[in-house]
Amino acid sequence: MKRISIYFGDAEVVITDTPQDHRYAVVYADTSIINNLGAKIQKKVETNKFVAVISQDPTATFEELKQDFVLVEAAGGVVQNERDELLMIELRGRWDLPKGHIEAGEEANIAALREVEEETGVVAELVDKESIMETWHAYNTYGRWELKRTRWWRMRALCGELKPEDEEGIARVEWCSAESMQERLKMSYATIRRVVNAL
Question: Taking the model in full, what pTM does it have?
Answer without folding.
Answer: 0.90
